[in-house]
Amino acid sequence: MASAFIGRAAELRRLADLLATVREKGRPATVLIGGEAGVGKSELLTLFCEQAAAEGAQVLSGACIELGSGAIPYGPLIEALRRLVRERTEEKARELAGPAWSELAPLISDFTGAEAPVGGQGSQLSVFGAVSRLLDHIGRTTPLVLVFEDVHWADPSTLDLIAYLTRMGSDERLLLICTHRSDLERGHPVRRVLAAPQFSRGMHRISLSRFTTAEMRDLITALATEPAGPEQVARCAELADGNPYFASQLVAAGYLADPDRLPETVADMMAVRLEQLSPAAAKVVEVAAVAGRRVGDRLLGAVSELDAETLADALQECLDQLVLVEDRTERGYAFQHALLRAAAYERIADLRRRLRHEAVARALAAEAEKHSRLVPELAYHWFAAAQEPEALAWAVRAGDLAVRMRAFQEAETQYRRALELWPGVPGAAAVAGTAKLRVLTVAADAARWAGHVDQAVRWAREAIDEAAEADGDRLGELYERLGSYLWEARAVDESAEAYRAAEQHLAGGPPSAAGSRVQAALATVAVRDGQHVDGLARAKRAGELARAVRARAEEGRALNSEGLALTMLDEPDEGVRALRQGLEIAIEVDHLEDTLRAYANLGLCLEHADLLAESVEVLLDGLAKARGLGLLHTRQGGVLANNASATLTLLGRWDEAVALLDEARPEPPATETAYQLLNRAEIATARGRFDEAEGLLREVRSRPNTDARFVGPLYGCLAELALWRHDGGQAAEAVTRGLEAIAGSENVLVRLQLYAMGLRVAADGHLSRTGPQEQRPTLADVAALLDAARQTVAGHPGSPGTRLLLEQCEAEHARAASVDAAAAWRRVADGWESLERPYPMAYARFREAEAEAVARHRRATVAAGGAFAAAERLGAEPLREQIAALASRYRLDLVKPLPAPRPPLGLTDREFAVLRGIRTGRTNREIGQTLYISESTVSVHVTNLMRKLGVRNRAEAATVALREGFFAGD
Question: How wide is the angle at C-alpha 158 spanned by C-alphas 156 and 163, nearest 5°?
Fold first, then answer.
């Protein structure tokens, strides 16, 4: 078709410019080309790809296939890879793809479908990572143009892959081009997906409009086989209404020669063309329409039952009439346009259509035993043929295949179909080749990873009902799975009940992997409820059970729970060590659930141990894993996003924290977790967006939660919001209610955070000159709070942050007693700065400046300037206003302090501070106490800085520092 050579010059140039950017600057680009059916998307791409290939780019192209709800996972990627093999041979394809080929080859290989591993565990195929490595390998020598056509028919896994490629880093030489129909009906699921910010962010959009009148005339003239008068061309252009495909159909229907033959609609026009075919050609078209987007000689022959000579003549007629076009690469035939196939399919009566689908299914059945890529197509054809036994059997196989490919949404669709068919098929288990219990189990896990956890819960409950007569071990396993899904559905109390039911069913039995998982789960439940000692005991029991039966995955899960409990018992070094081991095992055995959970818990515990930079790094690694597998919007992905956002908030990286929450925000936003809402509320409060914070907190409080790690920060945020609104009574009530809510918790850090806030509220109230005298706290009230804080810490080694919070409590007490606490506040501010927590540092520096100003010390200006600069940098408007008011009251100059010079030789700020301690002869313990970090963390920094300085011991490090004058100004 000549339409690509007429018009589209601007669009062609834009694609060429984007490819040039990809080639020269190594920056990937994604283009979404939209337009109504027949407007020329494919023709534009054909011309561009020919030009790109001529300029040395590698072009891979595939299209999505319309199979209703039985889409082929990664359909266009599979087609692109198959084309690569056919065009270049497998040996050349392997060479081009590099190491990634061994992972991508199973997508197009002819392996037979073995029993699918449950829940995607054990699969070594990570499609997204393999595609990324493919792009990297090709991009070293030439840019890659990857084309996915017709994404309005894309399977969910393909859409996730497109989103992943669009968000990739800036070191891939990839131009990804996707086409879609813009005339989709309202409510079409792909319309919502294409419009989602997380999908479309960073995309270049090209919208193909209809041809102008002049372009249509040029096109019709080029298409005409015989000269046509200007009036005929103009009338044809008017009727085609700017759509080049419609124009081609008018010309092909003979309109230029006989205008009176014009049908009423384009569909009628195409029907007229189809009616002009011979009976044999019509039969070929009918089979092709039922078969799908592309059909081969063998399938056409088998289903049409035409002899070879008749089939060849019929095919030639279809090609001559431009109804079908030949695809030599794939050795098959396709309709000249999707609209033509739709018209041909609609002409087939329902009964005849079902018979044709059955014939296609029977013809494909033997081939599908060898070529597993045909399994989803076969499942679709049996279902469309209304042959329920065969549809059931192949739906189960298609679901199993999708699970192996980690295409969980497709797997859920296939299993749902199988379960719906099950009651109507006699001997369904024998037909499916598996028990209904197994299908329910794998369906629940697929639904869970597809982000439909409520459905996972329903299927898990059905599985328990199905297994009512099973032995205790099997029921124990099923209740354990139900507990996991209920937790992800945020039914926390029901989740704990399910785990306890699992424990009861397994009681008295021999050690088992299921028993280990249950104990690990109950350990986490205990930790969540603040019962850390019990949690640790259960985690250790889980480890013993796992080792007894040599269950490697369960051993990793037990270490995960053990590390969490140890950290909450203020043994962060041991806790982090256990969690790292658990993560290593989860990755080693490729256990998806445990891997994501271990990333989340490790990040949480590193944050608890005040290793914020390491925490963010781990959590972002886990998020990258979830994003790469298309699981960002699952509960596991949400927990990772929330934990990372919380840590970024502590680091003062508030914009990044909000952006991360936005990316992982579920659809609809109303399902956002209470933890994510609380994180947003804390940032809104600190930034002075009080109405927004109040609305968020109202929503948070409507969702009951007993986890002390949630309840404590919630009431702390409520108290801070009340303080900024000058409502001391409301702030005091929030602290009191918070302490009551966590009274049974063993979480020292959370309790101390509330005591620090309570002392701040009490000190403000005691010093206040407004409000009824009888409502103001006395010094005895303040002292009681401090005594409670001291008792909380007594007997606990505590993390650096814990010790610092106690010092802050002491400083607040001194402030309430009008004692000069400038030195105490300076130590607290220095401590928070050392721990890289700018917001509490700015608050402590403000209190230091306040104390210095009251005592008329010169340091007040320096402290106020530092506090003001930090608050301004954070956007902490309420705190900034308080500092400005203090400066105005005492006439302090808020000159921003000069930024500290960057440490030399690539040392980090923390490593430079450790080197300062080494130079003065301090031990690791003494350095840790000064910097508010653990002794083991100091040891890690010492090792790193010696490597960077190229020295062998501490003495040599001190010598280098002295020789180079690193601390000459000290």
Answer: 95
Beta bridge partners of 174: 144
Give CA–CA dist 472/460, Å, rounded.
16
Bridge-based pairing state of the strands 144-149 and 174-181? parallel
> Residue 922, exposed/middle/buried by CB under 10 A (0-12, 13-18, 19+)?
middle
3-class DSSP string for 256-320:
CCCHHHCCCCHHHHHHHHHHCCCHHHHHHHHHHHHHCCEEEHHHHHHHHCCCHHHHHHHHHHHHH
Helix (H) or strand (E) holding 601: helix 592-608
Cα–Cα distance measured from residue 296 to residue 837, given in angstroms and rounded to the nearest whole number: 65
Asked if residues 98 and 134 have their Cβ atoms less than 8 Å apart, the reply is yes
Residues 6+ away with beta carbon under 8 Å from 628: 126, 128, 129, 132, 164
CB atoms within 10 A of CB 701: 15
Amino acid at 164: Y
Q: What whole-number distance in Å separates Cα of residue 87 and Cα of residue 81?
A: 10
Write down the pLDDT at residue 3. Answer: 46
Helix, strand, or coil here: 576? helix
Rg, Å, the chain Cα set: 34
Please give the full DSSP string across 791-814, using - where no structure is assigned.
HHHTT----HHHHHHHHHHHHHHH
Q: Report the alpha-carbon distance of residue 146 to residue 135 in Å, rounded.
A: 10
* Spatial separation of the C-alpha atoms in residues 394 and 372, rounded to whole Å: 11
Give pLDDT, residue 897: 56
Q: Are 456 and 434 in contact (CB under 8 A)?
A: no
Place of tokens 């449950």: 118
Q: Could you give the CA distance from residue 121 to residue 589 in angstroms, rounded to a whole number?
A: 8
Q: Which helix (H) or strand (E) element contains residue 146?
A: strand 144-149
Round to whole Å and give the CA distance between 419 and 441.
11
Could you tell me the CA-to-CA distances from 946 to 906, 910, 919, 934 in Å, in that order?
A: 12, 13, 13, 19
The CA angle 349-352-355, to the nearest 5 degrees, is 150
- Give the whole-angstrom CA distance, residue 692 versus residue 696: 6
The type of residue at 461 is: R
Contact in structure between 909 and 931 (CB atoms under 8 Å): no
Q: Give alpha helix (H) positions in 98-225.
A: 101-104, 127-139, 156-166, 189-195, 197-200, 213-223
Q: What is the DSSP letter of 425?
A: S
Token duo for residue 877: 């408007």
Partners of residue 334 on adjacent β-strands: 294, 325
The token pair that represents 138 in the structure block: 């090709």
Put residue 676 in one of left, alpha, beta given phi > 0 → left and psi -120 to 50 → alpha. alpha
Signed CA dihedral, 506, 508, 513, 518: sign only: positive
pLDDT, residue 372, reads 76
Amino acid (one-letter) located at 840: P
Q: 206 phi and psi, to 5 degrees? A: -125, 120
Alpha-carbon distance 633 to 864, whole Å?
43
Mean pLDDT by 10 residues, the chain (970 residues): 65 90 83 84 89 89 70 77 80 79 68 36 52 77 88 80 71 84 66 61 80 84 80 77 79 73 63 86 93 84 90 92 80 79 86 93 82 85 94 94 84 94 95 95 91 92 89 88 90 92 91 94 90 94 95 95 90 90 91 89 86 88 78 78 90 89 67 84 96 94 83 94 92 92 85 93 78 66 85 76 90 90 93 91 95 84 92 95 93 69 74 86 82 71 83 85 73
**∠ CA(750), CA(500), CA(451), 5° rounding?**
75
Helix residue ranges per DSSP H, 507-653: 513-528, 532-548, 552-568, 572-588, 592-608, 612-628, 635-650
**DSSP state, residue 707:** -
Long-range pairs for 360-364: beta carbons < 8 A, 24 or more residues apart: 360/287, 360/290, 360/291, 360/299, 360/303, 361/385, 361/387, 361/390, 363/298, 363/299, 363/302, 363/303, 364/299
| Burial class of 889 by CB neighbour count within 10 A (0 to 12, 13 to 18, 19+) | exposed
Residue 192 token pair: 């919502």
Q: Residue-wise over 897-907: b if at least 16 C-beta within 10 A, else e?
A: eeeeeebeeeb
